Amino acid sequence: MKNLQEYVQEMPLHSLVFFSLVEATANLVEVSEKYWKSRGLNGARIRLLVEIMKEGGTILPSMLAKRIGVTKPNITLLLVPLENDGLIRRTSHPQDGRKTVISITSEGQSLLLKNLPENRQRIAEKMNALEEDELKQLLVLLQKLQRN
Amino acid sequence: MKNLQEYVQEMPLHSLVFFSLVEATANLVEVSEKYWKSRGLNGARIRLLVEIMKEGGTILPSMLAKRIGVTKPNITLLLVPLENDGLIRRTSHPQDGRKTVISITSEGQSLLLKNLPENRQRIAEKMNALEEDELKQLLVLLQKLQRN
DNA sequence: TCATTTTAGTTAAGCACTTAACTAAATGCC
DNA sequence: GGCATTTAGTTAAGTGCTTAACTAAAATGA
């Protein structure tokens, strides 16, 4: 290594890819979060609703934690305001007293119906520098990157 | 739209790319953050040191905020422990009394020299599912995505 | 020239997450 | 059958960021 300043300025390919990933992702996430925020909503809570919906409308908190990739305490904290807003419902599990069954309400469902398409549209617009075949290439490369 | 459950399950290409980006980036960031944490360090503080070094060893906090992409108050909060650990030094600007000149100390520089190469190595290893030409393709696509 | 606006940085309050510690219920095992 | 262990969820404390409000210094402009 010649000197530290040159070392930090001349990044190797892996690092360039790393920082590009971080930056591109941050920009897209910002678009999405701003959309939800502008509607008094919150990306993390929406992901919970989507995940409940994917499961068919009911799910356990611990499963949500795995799917979303956050900790169990955080799931509790996310569910509280969702329940207060009437978007989900908690019922205790009939067989297993430790479990709580989370179900999405019809209000939760209509919130998704009303907002998800536009949110997807905003994200898609932010990606419009890439053609469809480039998006497909990118997806393949990202999925290959994940195999590790 | 047929029904909400199918809608959330069948994601369009843009959304697939979006979520792949988020996931892949999160995994790589986790590797990097764990590395710093295992050494009692912190990715955000390291980024500050690197950015000071890129500038040649001295920089203003407001410039740091722009480069790193965080708010000014956060820069203050990041600089405090760096100064307490003797990794940076604050001096008031000789001409402009509002400004504070941040300079990296020799301790700060040796910390980077000692740890940056291994950190880069860990990140590179996490990417080893991709060949060099694939990394180059990915970089090109990410840079094109950013043009927006 | 001196009052107003802008700029630089810090302090305060709040939000979204984490880890650690806890409660309660179910399971396992002799 | 009853004690120890595991599992599910919540509560508490702490971290790292944000926005809003503040202080002080410099620049602007009638």
Strand content of chain A: 5-15%
Report the helical percentage of chain A. 55-70%
Shape of chain A: elongated
Number of helices of chain A: 7
Q: Classify the secondary structure makeup of chain A into a structural class.
A: mainly alpha
End-to-end separation of chain A: 30 Å
How large, in whole angstroms, is the Cα Rg of chain A?
A: 20 Å
How many strand units of chain A? 3
Uncertain stretches of 5 or more adjacent residues of chain A: none
User: Most extensive chain contact?
Assistant: A-B, 58 and 58 residues
What's the assembly state of these chains?
A: homodimer
Could you give a short account of the major beta sheet of chain A? 3 strands, antiparallel
Mean pLDDT across every amino acid position of chain A: 96
Lateral strand order in the biggest sheet of chain A: 1-3-2
